[in-house]
């Protein structure tokens, strides 16, 4: 029930007392509290007038989501206004309205069936509201935290966060604080139980003396220890195991003490992963001293730090030298001033916090506008995983334009992800014109932005279109999410004349070959021009290109070879992965899946080898020959690891679940024993290990099999 009163009603008696000797509020306070109240009243009244008829004539098909969408757009209006004064004054009011609307929409979604026509409308309204609140948060200048210098000036904290510093050739996790006049690098002191935590200053640089100079060719770079990718992946496996153990112990009686021990262990492992994963260098230099090197996981993060420092350096800054007492006071204040309290790992999160999304995010990058000059432009996509961000996809370069039209779709795997970042770059073809740091992307970032991956808004069958605004540039994109179970579901194709979703023995019999034509052609093309491609099989190909290749192979199009030669190599690699993923049963078969899981778990090396080789010989001929062909190919790809960055373990991680994940009938047999998430995490680990075992211990009979077996059919 809504009741509306004129906004003037409470103001009249307040204004009447404002001029007396004992005012309830001063005139200025009244103006502040009731600023633009008439505008807010009109927005609410318009919403009420539109909502009332729907309430009075309520039935099961009535929708109200479109009304909330209009309300959100009305509220967002002032923020986009050209009148800066109105914009600044109205933001506080808009935030209050949006918060109330978001809470209301969350409640409505809880009680609205997913198949009701109002559900997607309410989801979209919630997305608009949350994106507006996120944009406000990003624009707020954090001036709420400050300390006073000995001269009586305010030294404000602008930004802080955890970064990995390379110090004495080893990685150290530091807490870095950016103040209005200096950058301070600190570490947390070890304190005894019961004592307050304190920071210890490692070094500081006045912003007046700070530069971003990269190394000259004559300088020797700091030695950076980079761990093999498989060690990082193995740590992720250990963390996943601990997560499952924690969930089981929470349900067990008297399991709380063990939960705390497991949490502590997981925190140590996640901290190790966070420290050893970053590879993107961020160098800063003191004009009167030494240089320092940080390693970041994301180009987005590096750009944020650089932009924040450069923005402060535009002011008239004076170099400052802190006495030991001043430095101690400033360092001590960091504990209270900090805005980032814990390293970004899941073990530091509350149980109530969302665990993030696990599955596949489909993203279409449509277009961008707002560029002042023509340029060669492309976008990259990043998502967070295990506390740090990873680049997952890249559009093609759109040349010499101010309005690129990419319209490219990508499928991105999510592992507990909560945010999607989009970065827009201008390609620089003349690399000699730029100072190049180790592993540094030399292309210029034109803009960057991020959106929250809220489960309620993205988990829908429908595409959600959105726009990210970045430095005057607007990038238009769409996204939808598919859970892991649905996206990897194996189904038999109704059209048995094609190759996707058709049993491998049916395809090879029809083609009169031992290895399907699609497998041979994709492998040949990758080895011809993609074996040196960085991230081959890991970087997503454009989904529309993959679907075009899929349709061509399914219909046996005559110009398939021409398509393959013209297509982006990541799309061809993606097509090969899709073929194996869509087989109605895994390449290593449902029948043998339990035996593979048991064999890889054997501890005795000799017993494991006997078991794994026996299982291999037990495969049907088409499955065996296809698997051996793929193994040889992946080994050749891994030989180029120094160039393509794809190790055997990387390839095992990519292909393991694709080749071994059982069909739904097989999975259903184990679901009564444990939860679906437990099945997924444990099985994926074992599936990766199975493929990795065969990559590291290839069957001796490779050459013999190829000599004595009809490998290629001359009739295809």
Give a concise summary.
With 716 residues, the chain is an alpha+beta fold.
Overall description:
Residues 339-468 form the C2 domain. It is found in: Cell projection, Axon; Cell projection, Dendritic spine. It comes from Scophthalmus maximus (Turbot). This is Active breakpoint cluster region-related protein. One of its GO terms (cellular component) is dendritic spine. By secondary structure, this protein is α+β, with helices and mostly antiparallel strands. The strands form 3 sheets. Strands 1, 2, 3, 4, 5, 6, 7 and 8 form an 8-stranded antiparallel β-sheet that branches. Residues 78-90, 215-221, 433-440, 672-680 and 705-716 have low confidence and may be disordered. It is built from 25 helices and 17 strands. α3 runs antiparallel to α4 (65-76) and α4 (65-76) packs parallel to α6 (118-139).
């Amino acid at each position: 029930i809504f009741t509306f009163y004129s906004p003037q009603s409470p103001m009249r008696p307040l204004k009447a007392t404002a001029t007396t000797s004992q005012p309830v509020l001063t005139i200025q306070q009244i103006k502040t509290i009731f600023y633009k109240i008439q505008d807010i009243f009109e927005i609410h009244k318009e919403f009420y007038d539109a909502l009332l008829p729907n309430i009075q004539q309520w039935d099961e098909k009535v929708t109200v989501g479109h009304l909330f969408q209009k309300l959100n757009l009305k509220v967002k209006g002032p923020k986009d206004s050209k009148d800066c004064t109105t914009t600044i004054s109205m933001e506080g009011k808009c935030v209050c309205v949006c918060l109330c609307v978001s809470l209301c929409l969350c409640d409505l979604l809880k009680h609205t069936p997913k198949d009701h026509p109002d559900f997607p409308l309410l989801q979209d309204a919630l997305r608009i509201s949350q994106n507006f609140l996120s944009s406000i948060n990003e624009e707020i200048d954090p001036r709420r935290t400050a300390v006073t210098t000995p001269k009586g000036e305010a030294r404000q904290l602008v930004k802080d966060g955890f970064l990995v510093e390379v110090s004495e050739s080893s990685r150290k996790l530091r807490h870095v604080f950016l103040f209005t006049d200096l950058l301070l690098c600190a570490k947390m002191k070890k304190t005894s139980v019961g004592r307050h935590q304190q920071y210890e200053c490692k070094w500081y640089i006045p912003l007046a003396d700070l530069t971003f100079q990269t190394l000259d060719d004559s300088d020797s770079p700091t030695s950076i220890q980079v761990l093999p990718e498989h060690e990082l992946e193995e740590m992720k496996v250990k963390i996943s195991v601990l997560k499952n153990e924690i969930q089981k112990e929470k349900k067990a009686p008297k399991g709380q003490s063990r939960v705390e021990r497991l949490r502590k262990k997981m925190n140590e492992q996640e901290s190790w992963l966070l420290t050893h994963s970053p590879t993107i260098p961020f160098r800063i230099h003191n004009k009167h001293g030494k240089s320092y090197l940080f390693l970041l996981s994301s180009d987005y993060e590096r750009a944020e730090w650089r932009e924040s420092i450069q923005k402060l350096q535009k002011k008239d800054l004076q170099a400052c030298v802190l006495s030991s007492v001043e430095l101690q006071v400033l360092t001590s204040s960091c504990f209270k001033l900090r805005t980032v309290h814990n390293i970004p790992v899941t073990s530091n999160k509350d149980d109530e916090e969302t665990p993030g999304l696990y599955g596949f995010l489909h993203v279409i990058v449509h277009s961008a506008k707002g560029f002042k000059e023509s340029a060669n432009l492309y976008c990259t996509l990043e998502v967070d995983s295990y506390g740090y961000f990873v680049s997952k996809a890249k559009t093609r370069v759109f040349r010499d334009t101010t309005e690129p039209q990419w319209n490219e779709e990508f499928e991105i795997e999510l592992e507990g992800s909560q945010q999607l970042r989009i970065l827009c770059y201008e390609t620089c073809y003349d690399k000699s014109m730029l100072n190049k740091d180790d592993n540094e992307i030399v292309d210029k970032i034109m803009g960057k932005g991020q959106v929250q991956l809220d489960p309620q808004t993205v988990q829908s069958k429908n595409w959600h279109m959105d726009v990210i605004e970045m430095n005057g540039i607007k990038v238009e994109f769409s996204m939808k999410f598919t859970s892991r179970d649905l996206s990897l579901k194996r189904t038999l194709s109704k059209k048995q004349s094609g190759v996707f979703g058709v049993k491998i023995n049916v395809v090879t019999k029809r083609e009169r070959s031992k290895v399907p034509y699609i497998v041979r052609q994709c492998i040949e093309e990758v080895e011809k021009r993609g074996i040196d491609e960085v991230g081959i099989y890991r970087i997503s190909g454009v989904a529309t290109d993959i679907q075009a290749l899929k349709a061509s192979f399914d219909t046996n199009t005559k110009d398939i070879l021409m398509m393959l030669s013209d297509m982006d190599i990541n799309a061809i690699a993606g097509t090969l992965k899709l073929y194996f993923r869509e087989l109605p049963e895994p390449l290593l078969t449902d029948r043998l899946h339990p035996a593979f899981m048991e064999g890889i778990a054997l501890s005795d090396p000799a017993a494991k080898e006997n078991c794994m080789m026996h299982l291999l010989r037990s495969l049907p001929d088409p499955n065996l020959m296809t698997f051996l062909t793929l193994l040889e190919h992946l080994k050749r790809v891994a030989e180029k690891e120094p160039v393509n960055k794809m190790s055997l373990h990387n390839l095992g991680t990519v292909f393991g679940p694709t080749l071994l994940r059982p069909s739904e009938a097989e999975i259903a047999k184990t679901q009564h024993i444990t939860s679906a998430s437990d099945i997924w995490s444990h099985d994926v680990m074992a599936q990766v290990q199975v493929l990795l075992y065969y990559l590291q211990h290839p069957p001796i009979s490779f050459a013999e099999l190829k000599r004595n077996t009809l490998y290629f059919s001359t009739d295809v």
